[in-house]
Structures are given as structure tokens and as C-alpha cells.
Prior knowledge:
Blueprint: H1 3-33, H2 61-71, E1 77-78, E2 81-82, H3 83-95, E3 101-106, H4 110-122, E4 126-131, H5 136-144, E5 153-158, H6 161-173, E6 181-187, H7 192-197, E7 204-212, E8 215-223, E9 229-240, E10 244-249, H8 257-260, E11 267-273, E12 281-283, E13 291-294, H9 296-308, E14 310-316, H10 333-339, E15 345-346, H11 354-357, E16 360-362, E17 367-376, H12 386-389, H13 393-421, H14 431-442, H15 454-483, H16 494-504, E18 507-511, H17 515-522, H18 526-533, H19 537-540, E19 541-542, H20 545-552, E20 557-562, H21 563-573, E21 578-580, E22 585-590, E23 593-595, H22 601-613, H23 616-631, H24 648-680
Parallel strand pairs: 3-4, 3-5, 5-6, 6-7, 11-14, 11-15, 18-19, 18-20
Antiparallel strand pairs: 1-2, 7-8, 8-9, 9-10, 12-13, 16-23, 17-20, 17-21, 17-22
Helix pairs in contact: 1-2, 3-4, 9-22, 9-23, 13-14, 16-18, 17-18, 21-23
Amino acid sequence: MSTGQINTVILLVTLALGLLTTSVADRIxxxxxxxxxxADDSSAEISPHLxxxxxxxxxxxxSQSFAMIKRYKITLLQDDVSYTELQNLIExxxxxxxxxNVYFFHDYADAAxxxxxxxxxxRGAEVTVFSCKGGMKAIESIIKxxxxxxxxxxxxxxxxxxxxxxxxxEIYSKLLESALTHWFVILQTDILKPLTALxxxxxxxxxxxxxEPRVYVLRGSYINRKNKVALHDLGWWSWHATxxxxxxxxxxxxxxxxxxxxxxxxxxxxxxxxxxxxxxxxTYPGDGRVIPISGLDYNVLKTIGxxxxxxxxxxxxxxxxxxxxxxxxxxxxxxxxVHRHExxxxxxxxxxTEQREKAIDFTKPYYYESTTxxxxxxxxxxxxxxxxxxxxxxxxxFLFLVEILIGxxxxxxxxxxxxxFGEEHEKWESIPDVSLMMFRSLVIQGSKxxxxxxxxxxxxxxxxxxxxxxxxLYSDVMISVLAVPxxxxxxxxxxxxxxxxxxxxxxxxxxxxxxxxxxYSNTTMQIYTDxxxxxxxxxxxxxxxxxxxxxxxxxxxxxxxNRLGAEVRANVRGRDKFHFAAHEFYAHGYxxxxxxxxxxKTSFEEVLVREMTYGLVQKYSRDELEKAxxxxxxxxxxxxxxxxxxxxxxxxxxxxxxxxxxxxxIVEAIVNKHRSMNADM
Length: 681
């Protein structure tokens, strides 16, 4: 047998071993290596992390056969794709990424894919394989799963042109963009244009497009200044049977999203808002534009834009609501606009809720505050009888008894001294005279001691000192009662609100579809449940916070709202017209809402953390409160002058005294007349 014949036999034997290896690979793939998920597989919905290598691959007959095939350059072809070429291209792309969670979607020969899996796993990656036919459910499971070892997933797509288009169509229609996923798509024909049309921001892709035999051009997706998906020229890669792989890279195959979005390149982002001071102050020039001029969130976003090199254009949310996911699956308000990728972000007093997180992503909170209750300012208490209310009724009874008893007590002392010492009678020694004299000193009408005797002087001086203290206390208390306003019991807590609803028919006011309404309607705490059970939507549901504050001024309404916005609106309308509850509740934070899978969310968060650390956010809130104070001065509650209403009781007492005097004159006249008639008889 000649040398040529011997080589031919060796090649044929090697080919047979390669084909046998393919069959072995199928069996190993179904048992120890991975499991394909197809459209007919009922387990397709199971989380893909269940299908991966479970142990380090050993040097088996399986891997030795691959080495033999590679050494003799024998290729297995399917759709004109060389096994060796494909394996080396995948290895090149894999080396260009930092991610070590690897997923394959393929419809090529198992041998090519399995060899690539062996290479990835040998380098420490966790590998999972899916079929292009039934991979859509797997994609959703992958993108929505938190079960990845690292922050980036690499998904290699080795599907036919039609299958690849279907894959990207599903990603687009089901909003499956993800900042944690990088796609490596190998194309045997150039279908970049239709694929690009199916891509949005958040789908990061590196394409390897075959342009001629064994030559691939490399393209990478990015967002241009017009906010459209475009492709960078990354270079090219080629495979030669003798010299192996050759490449030319103009740009990296993969860039971390944090690096990509450290500079937006001067892009203009679309931000959906509601006119909601103090977070936004908007102007409307009349040409359809919305121009922001101030506000807490305006300053926060402007600082982010300055740091990341972008500007922003405002668009008013059509339905004027914050919104959320409805029972029928629709998404309303600003949440819906961001969810549908009609805006890049929404920042407007946005509270994170579990319901909203189903539709959009939130940054870390940048501003924290609590919810409060705003009610009408408590009415002032009637002070017409302040001359009496300065002392309690017990004190008045005590003074009355003291005044009655002091006269008889002194007369008793005088009588005792006469009996014991035989003292002479003095002209003031009668109960009416002594009582009147003591009363005059009590009302500051005289304090002369009518006797020179030491005992009497001690008694009178102690009485004068007693009356001095009583007068001082009475004067001070009455001045404070008359001059300092006092008010009826305010609504200072949720329990006060519930009591006011039950007894005084107060109405709770909540923003329709707002987070505050969500709190009352979904919490399990009894106090919230009791209040919301009595909530009248026809009377208490309002569209914006200004309506809520105006409703409070109309009567028995209590507005439940966040503190900062309520403070600003109260300052504009007159702070003294409102009462803010002493007890606040439901502390929460505000975040920026981004589309699901937003690649720039982390970049936003980095700037937000710096703004919070440097105290800028608190400064912005203080600035807005100060602006409200300049619009209308805040009336401070303090002393007020004594007016005629305060002295009503004094006049009533004077009139009553005159009336009693007049009655006394009449009685006296009747008595004298009666006596005269008796004398004549």
C-alpha cells in the first residue's frame, strides 16, 4: 500500500471517528453537558440555570476526537458553515467580552456548538444551550432571571436568517431589552438593516457578518445623536485553513454599559413629566414646546445631564397621571410612556411601588420624605369670656369663699380681743365694712391698714400679699389668653382623621391613581383600611395637588399628600390657612423611572449618589420653599391685640352689675313704700 493510500485510509478513519463523536456528543449533551429547549418541550418555562455544566469536563474520548478533527482540518458542513471556522470565531468573540454567563441559541450541527461549549466551560464560564426553534420562552426567562453568576450575560446566536429575525422581533415586541445582556450574532447573510430596525436602546449587539468565504465583518450597535440605533465598524475577522485566524479590530468588541453611558455625546433625551411644582416649573411658549425653568427634579436632572453630556426635551404625559399597571394589563400615565419607550425617563416625585416595577426600572432613591395630612387651619376658640376662663372654676369658688369668710374672721378676732383685753370699739369693726375693705384690696382699690395694732396689721399685710399674688397671676394669664391665639383640636394623625370622618363628616382627599391612594387601598394596617373604606371617590378624588389644596380651603376636607409639595402650595395660598399634622407617616423615596433594561440607569445612579452626598438635593428643595415664601409672605401665628370681642364678658359683667343695682333700687323703693304705708296706719 502506497503512502497516499495510507493517508487516505487515515482520513477516512478520522472522518468516521468525527461522525461517531457527533453521535456521542448528542448523548452527552442530553445527559451531562446541557439540554436543548425546543418549542415542544414542556419544560421550556423552567429557569435556564437548570441546564448547564455541573462539573469540570474531563479529557475524554469525546474531547480527544475533536482535537483529532482539528489537527487534520476535516470540516463538517451545514449551511456552508465550517465547524472549525465557527468554533474559532466563537472563541474570538468570547474572548472579547468580560461576561462568563454564556448562552447559545443555534440551529447548526451539535458538534460545532458542543466544541464551543467545551471551550467556554474550560475557561470558567457557565454555559447553557437552546434551540432557535423554541428559544423565545427561554430568552424571557434568561433576561428576567437574577440567577447569573456575573453582571453580564453573553448570548451567542447561531441561527438562520429567518430565525434570527424572529428572535429580534420577539425582543422588540415584548420589550425584552436588558442592560445585563450582550448579544453576539453570527450571520451568514447580511440582514443588518432589518435587524437594526428591530432594535431599541438597551439591546447591545456585536454582529459578525459573513461577506465572503471565511471572512466576517464586525459591527457593534450604539445610539447616535438622533437617538437611533446605528452600527460602528469594529473591524473584520477571517479564517484560513493553513494560517488560522486573522483579525483587525478598530474598536473593542464589547464595552461595559457604564463606560458607554459615561458620555451621551450630546444627545437630547425625551423626559415625560406632569406640571408639578416644586418638582417642575414649566412654561408653554405656545408653539407646542414645554420649557422647564425650575424645580427640584429639574435641577436634579440638569445636573445629571451636565455630568453625562446630554440635554433633555420635556413632553407632558397625555393623561396627566403618574400611572401604573392596570387590571387589564394596560399601563397608564408616565409609567406607560416610559414602559413603551416613548420617553427615555420620567422624573417627577416618582415613588417606587411593586406594581410599577413590573413595567419599568427605577434608579436608587435620591430624595426622601414622608406623607402628611393637610386640613383647614383650626378655628380660634371664643374668648368673650376670657375674664372668667383665666382661672378655673375651682379657683373662682375658692376666692368667693375666702372673700365671704375673711370679714367674719376679722370681726371674730376683734370680738376676742375685746373680751380678753377690754379694747375699745373701732369704727370699722363690722362685717360689711371689713368685707368691703378686703374686697377693695382684692380689686386694687385700696390697701390702707385701718388699725395701728400689730395683730391687725399682720392680718391685713398677709391679706394684701395674698391679693397681690392673685392679681399678678390673673393679669398674666388673662393677657396670654387674650393676646395669644388658641385653637380647636386639630387633625394631627390618622386616628384624628378617622375620628373627624366619623363625628364631623370630614372627607379624605387623595390623588386619583397616585401612590398615596395605592397606600390606603392596598396596605393591611387597620387604620388605612378603615379610612379608605369611608373614602368617597366622587368627593375626594383629585387630578393634581393644586386641586387638593384648594379643596381643603372649601371646608371639611383633609388632603393626604407628600410634605414638600404641600408646604410649597400652602405657602403660596397662605400658610396660616392650613394645618399640617404633627405626626407624619409612610416615609418613602423618589426615583427616576427608566424603561425596563435601561442601560443608562446605573450611570444616572452614580451622579445621583454624588448629588445626595454633596447635599445638592436638599439645597434644591430649600430653594423651592424659599421661592414660595417670596410669592406670598407666610403669616406667623403669634400675639394679637386685644379687641372688643375679648372684653365682651367684662361688659356683660358691668351690665349685670348695673342691672342688679337697678333691681336693688326697685326693691328698696317697694320696701320703703310698704313701710310708709304701715307708718300711716
